[in-house]
Amino acid sequence: MTLPSLQPEAVGATAARRRKFAYGLTPRAIWLLLAGFLWLYPGYFYPQVSYGFLAWEALILLIAAFDAAGLPKPERITATRRWSNAPALDGTTEVELGITQSGNRILDCRMMDDLPLELVAIPKTLRVLAFPHVPAKVRYAFTPNERGDWHVGNLFLRYRSTISLVDRWAQADLRQTVRVYPVLRGGEGQRIYLARSRQIELQLRQAQQRGQGREFESLREYRPGDDLRDLCWTATARRGELITRQYQAERSQAVWIVLDCGRLMRSRVAMGVAQPEGLNELEVAAAAAATRKPATPYRAHDASTLHTKLDHAASAAVALAQLALFSADRVGLLAYGEGIQQRILPARGAAHLRQIIESLAQLRAEPGEADHLRATATLNRLQPRRGMVLWVTDLAETAMRPEVIDGAMQLLKRHLLLFITIAQPEVERIANARPASVEQFFRAAAAQEMASRRERLLAQLNEHGARTMDLNPDALTAAVLNQYLEIKERSLI
Questions:
Q1: Which of 363, 328, 337, 324 is nearest to 252 (CA)?
Q2: C-alpha 284, offset from chain centre
């Protein structure tokens, strides 16, 4: 299923003055004024020549005044902003800025778009020549840093004539709210998974797989060994002989995407290495064990380029929703923190896919611990029948068994659970490193204990029938899609 159009709407407005006196001298005018001081050197020997300095300065200012008077008023300039695609993480977004002026002079315009830091760190100044009554357009591109809704401000203009002695300042009210989405995988990125999904569907149609599911297929005469619960008593009464229902594997299933939005999902990840916010738990444990001294904060480098674990989970959710809807399954969404953030019942269609993507873009990682048991109870109430549940979360480093494990055990009584935890590459790196000091030895021991405990918790879920994976964020999407296709191929739901 192709992604719906998510790009923001184009906006346009007439420019207005930025301030009461919106003029300024250009560098060319300032240099010409400074050149007048050259008259003072011969004026030192011949005082009459000094009047040339005053005449020169007055001439430059007079020409600048005529230049300023010939510049069109801001009200005669119209500005527009158009988005060529939907802003998404790790994707280049192009914006087209256009101005149309109804003056009688060619304008040299410089424009700066007021974008928030979540979209671009340093705004660019763009330059374009605007001819009278001819639209002038210029494009620029950027890669968003944060997912969510962000307010884009005005377009600031500074324009001058070809003489370039005076600038006039203006601004156009192009304020709008822009939504940045998770990573959106287009047709090229999904092609191999969509082709495999189509192949699995054709195989299931040929095999029919009667008796393995609960989707009605046909009626036939009763045979010894058939389940008495499958007898169709209305057909039996009409025909005067026992008639049984015949079922086949259901091809349209309910697929639920459950995302943890608690504090553990706020950790940022770069190049397969997690950079937790605030204090690193491993650093705290190692420092406490080795030196008994307070630990120092873990400094993240270039945090503006990192994405949170929740961002990676949301991107994987978009890819799975797209593939599951293409496979004729119904997809639901449950995102939770201390409360339920987003809840979408399973459905199909392009409009439903857009609703899921819009909801995923608005998810926010909360500073508190997520209420996993509440999410489990909500999901069991919303989905009483068996379905597939993709649960993306993380495991807290506590002495007791995490609450999320108890919630997963409850889901296993009714659903097929694909339990995904976001791996901690820095723990594995420290655990596998050869210690060179006593402090590093305790750090490695603490890391090995954390990794071992994590493996034991996932093994417990695996023994109870869950499919568990501890994945690095960069491998999350591909692993989830492959697991979903394997479940469909083996008709495990």
A1: 328
A2: 31
Alpha carbons 365 and 363: distance in angstroms, whole number: 7
Q: Yes or no: say if 57 and 36 are a contact pair by the CB < 8 Å rule.
A: yes
Domain spans of the chain, in order of start: 11-180, 216-248, 254-490
Mean pLDDT of 201-229: 64
What is the distance between the alpha carbons of residues 156 and 18, in angstroms, rounded to a whole number? 8
210-221 and 243-248: which strand pairing?
A: antiparallel
Residue listed under structure tokens 């002026």: 101
Question: Of how many residues is the chain composed?
Answer: 493
Residue 388, token pair as written in the block: 């597939």
Report residue 350: phi and psi, to 5°.
Answer: -65, -35
The pLDDT of residue 291 is 33
Residues linked to residue 15 through DSSP beta bridges, in sequence order: 172
Helix boundaries (H) for 74-214: 187-207
Condensed to tens digits (0 to 9), the pLDDT of residues 158-170 reads 999 988 999 999 9
Amino acid sitting at position 195 = A
Rounded CA-CA distance 479/296 in Å is 35
Tokens of 139: 């494009």
Residue 366 gets which letter from DSSP? -
Number of CB atoms found within 10 A of residue 192's CB: 11
**Residue 200 pLDDT greater than 90, yes or no:** no
254-490 shares the fold of 11-180: no
pLDDT in tens, 37-70: 887 777 677 777 778 888 988 999 999 999 999 9
Phi-psi region of 455 (alpha: psi -120 to 50; beta: other; left: phi over 0): alpha
- Tell me how far apart the alpha carbons of residues 152 and 164 are, in angstroms, rounded to a whole number: 30
CA distance 416 to 65: 77
d(CA 22, CA 399): 65
Say what the alpha-carbon torsion angle 339, 284, 403, 407 is, to the nearest 10 degrees: 80
Say whether pLDDT at 212 is over 50: no
3-state secondary structure of 486: helix
Specify whether the CB–CB gap between 311 and 320 falls below 8 A: no
CATH for 254-490? 3.40.50.410
- The helix or strand, by DSSP H or E, that contains position 403, with its residue range, turns out to be helix 403-412
Residue reference for tokens 């087209």 = 96
Q: From 319, 318, 320, 347, select the one nearest 332 (Cα to Cα).
A: 347
Question: Phi/psi class of residue 225: alpha, beta or left (left: φ > 0; alpha: ψ in -120 to 50)?
Answer: left
Alpha-carbon separation of residue 385 from 334, 378, 381, 410, 471 (angstroms) = 16, 13, 10, 14, 29
Task: For residue 332, count other CB atoms closer than 10 A to its CB.
Answer: 22
Q: Which CATH architecture has domain 11-180?
A: Sandwich (2.60)
